[in-house]
Write a structure and sequence with these properties.
Elements (H helix, E strand, L loop, with lengths): L1 E6 L3 H14 L2 E7 L2 H10 L4 E4 L8 H11 L5 E5 L3 H10 L4 E4 L4 H12 L7 H17 L7 H11 L4 H8 L3 H15 L4 H10 L7
Parallel strand pairs: 1-2, 1-3, 3-4, 4-5
Amino acid sequence: MIKILLVDDHPIVREGIIKILHRQMGLDSVAEAETSKEAMALLKKSVFSIVILDISLPDKSGLLTLDQIKQCYPALPVLILSMYPEEEYAIQSLKLGASGYLTKKALPEELLKAIDKIVSGGKYITEILAENLANVLDKRSEKLHFKCLTKREFHVMDMIVAGKTPREIAGILTLSVRTINTYRINILHKLKLRGNAELVRYAIENNLLGKY
């Protein structure tokens, strides 16, 4: 039997969700809270199978509430059910420990499916959210292009970022200026950058300054 804590400040929304839940699920009970404070008080009194949490609450952001729940009850699964589209808060919610994210435009069947999967120990990811996660991973992998640099290229990059000229770098490494410029071109190509200014910014963003 599933025991649910439903946190939403709109009575009509809670009533609609509860009707959906009773339609197909084997429920033990559904407890209701309108605020973050009420939700935390109920969590202290009872053990729940899952929390269904809205992002917009009158006393505290649902994301802050999610973070508080996961700190106090790390094993308790939380499904975010919000009016906001996935691209606004879904990834942030997952980072804070949510087990799934649905918008209130979702079909009742999808809500039931999400709860069933989460209560069973899984995570529920919509197709849109999966695409957003893939884009985030792609961007993250782009930021790690510096791992493709050779040791010598990394050394040259470090000196370029430090403000040394090709002639100065050539003198330090006992190489020709032409060779240093070739290294610079290869570095920019691998990192998909267009010039020294972007290279400096890239090094700062990825905390690479003085790492050679």
